[in-house]
Design brief:
334 residues; alpha/beta; D-Maltodextrin-Binding Protein, domain 2; 2 domains; five-stranded mixed beta sheet; 10 strands; 46% helix; globular
Length: 334
Amino acid sequence: MKLFCAPLFRTALGLAALTWGATVMAQMETLRIQDYPGLGNVMVRVAAANGYCEKNGLKCELKTIPAAPLGIQTLLAGDIDIAFGPAEVVIQAANKGADLKIIGNAARDSIFFLMAAAHTETPNAAKGYPAVMADLKGKKIGVTARGSGAEFQLLDMLKGAGMSGSDVTIVPVGAPNTALPAIANKQIDALMLFAPMDGFCAAMKVCRVIVDPRKGEGPKEITQLNGATGPMTVRGEFAQKKGAALDAFAKAMRESEAFIQNPANFNAVLKVINDTFKVEGPAGASAVEASLRNSINGARFTLDPKALQAAADYLHRTAQIDKSVDTGKLLQLR
């Protein structure tokens, strides 16, 4: 009798395990999250690679959308669940009536930095900002897209130096993979972009960083944003309906942040980046590593509400938005 029952018992256990596994999969919430070419949304990439999302009952699905305005549009259309872009873009959308809620940071420090092409002379570079901006008068400056956070911050830098957008020609060049040939082939003279473009500059000698807000360089309107420069944003109705999923997501992000900020894990984080954004050749590998070292300290989920309000106040003061925005109403921090 025992010999007869044992196989049946094992079969029953196997069926139970399959049923349990199917139930877990059915209960797992999928979150579609904006990513960018390059280092991208590093905390989500690490969380997905290290199993922090699954541990918290989530499937984190990254969707590459290379410009912040397009990310917000895609979010509002319901095709992603969490957008990641500069605070200025989120505030602009909220000012126009978009129902948005900010749940935390994808990047604490400034996402963008200004680079001059190798062929562009910058005699005022040694004087730093704002003097160096005069060297770009009449030049073509690349940004990710028109109306993007890159363009807004470029305009901030120009204004802080007593200049305006009319003093330069602004050219949309996309993400680093398309911006690199544009600056290398002298189609543009300077570039406002995000990582790993700074790494490409260092490794390939096609450009150099001349204003880096991550190091406190630039106008205070940008440097005081450090703390809330790259928020993660959801639709208001999504925040109401999916509060438990967003709480779980926050737990995964904090586990990812702790892993990333441990210096002993740098090579492991670099591997995640290389596995998700491959640049062929030794120069490409050096570029990605240099860029990660420059920006890794900003991979923190906690957002500073004062920095976010400072962004809104500046946009209103400079007439980039038509009314004051109380960013406290945007916050649903986890």
